[in-house]
Amino acid sequence: MTALLVPLLLKVLLTAAIVVAASVVVERSGPFIGSLIASLPTAGGAALIILALEHPPSFVAQSMIGSVVANAVCAVFALVYAALAQRNSLAVSLGSAYGVWFLAVYAARFVDWTMARAVLLSAIVFPLTIIAGRHFRVVGTAKRISLTAKDLAGRAIVVTVCVITVTAAAASIGSFVSGIFVFFPVAMGSFFIILHTRVGGPIAASVAAHVQVPLIGLGLGLLTVYLLAEPAGVWWAYGLGLCVGLGWNVMLWLVRQRRR
Fold first, then answer.
1. For residue 61, what are the domain limits?
2. How many CB atoms are closer than 10 A to CB 98?
3. Is 137 among the domain residues?
């Protein structure tokens, strides 16, 4: 029982902390900064830690192929939500985005994936989603909102319910490409739920439309883990992969500051 509860608690705590903090940042700093935080491997990072504790480096390395594919699908997920959230309800926008995610993952089962093919998929998907999402990006901050302890607790509860639901569903699915479900967009979906209900669909959609470029950094980090997990060890690979992803986001922030 402990072996089951501790990983779940870790995923809940990490995801809830980051998602709640990111939603506050969006309300105070704007969609671009929020997208940098939304692209961080919150629930996925916790799942990777659990994966490393339960499996050898070779398994972790191979699971990164599925994770890179899932990362590209997440870019499509965010774009679908961004397009629909302009004028539709949260249920329609997010439900449709998750529907597209599941259809894409189901279709991915029929491809004999290698890392080269996963990287090629990313090289096609990310430019297309970045271009398609340009009309949904807005500049500036959302309206100022006074936050209370009740607000933050409510957000944490939303994320907790989402994480528990996804974890239970993943356990019943079985071993279908572990790496794909490591990066099921539970944190991103929770993020959109909070923002859509608090600041409206267009602002939440702007975060979704900004997130594709930061997700490139996450993909590069996953590729780093794939390359280094066996020769350098899983924990070194994780550390360097995280540095790559964070370094990409820092670079994006510096470029934006320079343009300003």
1. 2-132+149-259
2. 16
3. no
Residue-wise pLDDT for 218-252, tens only, equals 899 999 999 998 898 888 888 898 899 888 988 98
**Residue 138 counted as domain residue:** no
Whether 54 and 223 have beta carbons less than 8 Å apart is answered as no
141 within domain boundaries:
no
Tokens of 147: 């936050």
The total number of structural domains that make up the chain: 1
> Which one-letter DSSP state was computed for residue 55?
S
Whether 190 is covered by a domain: the verdict is yes
Show the DSSP H helices in the chain as ranges. Answer: 2-29, 31-38, 43-54, 57-84, 90-108, 115-132, 149-173, 178-182, 186-199, 201-210, 212-232, 234-259
Q: What is the pLDDT of residues 188-215, one digit of tens each?
A: 777 788 778 777 778 788 888 888 888 9
